[in-house]
Amino acid sequence: MSETSTPQPAAAAPNQAAAPPPSGATFGEKAREGLRRAFAIDELGPLLALIALVIFIGGFHSDFLDKDVLLNTVRSAAFVAIVAYGMVYLLAMTEIDLSVGGIYALCIMLAAKWMSSIDPWVAALLAICVGVALGAVNGILCNLFKIPVIIITLGTLSMFRGLVQIVSDGKPATGIPLDSSCFEQLGGDIAGVPAAAWVVVVLGVILTFVFKKTRFGAMVRAVGSNHQAAEFSGIPVLRIRLYALMLVGGLAGLAGVLSLAYFQGADPTVGAGFELQVIAAAIIGGTAVSGGTGTVPGALIGALIVAVINSGLIFFSIDSNWTNFVTGAVIVIAVGSDALVRRRRAARALQGT
User: Fold this and answer.
1) What is the CA radius of gyration of the chain?
2) What three-state secondary structure class fits 98?
3) Which partner for 112 in 62, 99, 216, 266 could form a disulfide, CB atoms 3.0-4.6 Å apart?
4) pLDDT value, residue 30
5) In terms of Cα–Cα distance, which of 316, 212, 215, 195 is closest to 258?
6) Where are the domains of the chain?
7) Which pLDDT score, from 0 to 100, does residue 271 have?
8) Range 51-352: architecture per CATH
9) CA distances to 2, 19, 99, 111 from 272, in Å
């Protein structure tokens, strides 16, 4: 069967909007229907949690609500959100890439090294291309050995981290041309907002459209809904997985370049635990590990939640060693809550039949 005849299974979009109330419905009925639709939005829960966190921390430490602090929090979230967008695609296919932290770190170090000898803009573009290539390596290995992405990337994470040490020789990068316009434009602010935040918004709009409205997005969701059915219907599952991994790798490279432009330096230990934050952002934002669905805007909200939690730990003078523990605990809570909600929805669906 040709690819152009690929059907989109109903399972790929379980949270379809309910039918509108009849034209003769009363104002109260319309209001209840509107509220029901609002509470059915996947991103509502994470958004309310984000607002509650900001109010809670700001209530104890008013300095947290200062403009500069909030902008720095947004900037920190932006680097994570960019890669989390790609992780949404993988999670929708029931896959997880553990190597994004290694790709992120390696792209930062390579860009910093290359910028000392070639034009910084060219070096930045090459670093992003390296990210795409590393994602392709993950995809090729997964398809070649026919094993889940999480298994391969568990190994390539160590490989890429090792390459960071080899490239850097265990030392911070030197000779970076910090006076280049690359650092000013990518690492600075545009209209008072971090340039990285603008990149996040533009990418979010594009990748949301791709995920929800294009054939590629439909195939990603179809693979996660039912792998065997997707293959039977003619979807090139291995190729779609390869493209998704290349997307994640390229986004990790882009996040690395933006990080380098802002921090203006590269250290061999950069990006430690980055993959955990990316996965946490996607899951906290409402993308289920069971596959078939995903939310790109939710990934941004999840990244903001992770950044706010990290900032909150600092404001409450909690040891930074607790950061990974808290992030992991939030992942467990998010996954557990999602499982409970899905069970309740399934139970209600059975009662309604």
Assistant:
1) 21
2) coil
3) 266
4) 54
5) 195
6) 51-352
7) 85
8) Orthogonal Bundle (1.10)
9) 44, 47, 11, 18
Secondary structure class of 124 (helix, strand, coil): helix
pLDDT of residue 342: 67
Give whole-number Cα distances, 177 to 68, 111, 125, 173, 222, in Å.
26, 11, 16, 11, 46
Tell me the pLDDT tens digit for each residue of 285-335. Answer: 888 888 888 899 999 999 999 999 989 888 888 877 777 788 778 778 777
Task: Check: CB of residue 268 under 8 Å from CB of residue 171.
Answer: yes
Give the pLDDT score at 346. 67
Q: Which two tokens stand for residue 60?
A: 């104890």
Band of the pLDDT at 179, cuts 50, 70, 90? confident
User: Which of 5, 44, 101, 2 is CA-nearest to residue 327?
Assistant: 101
H helices within the chain, ranges in order? 27-39, 44-60, 67-92, 100-115, 120-145, 149-168, 181-187, 195-213, 215-225, 227-232, 237-263, 274-284, 296-315, 323-352
Q: Could you tell me if 285 and 66 are in contact, meaning their C-beta atoms sit under 8 angstroms apart?
A: no
Region 147-153: what's the mean pLDDT? 94
Question: Are 133 and 146 a contacting pair, CB within 8 Å?
Answer: no
* Distance between CA atoms of residues 276 and 84, nearest Å: 10
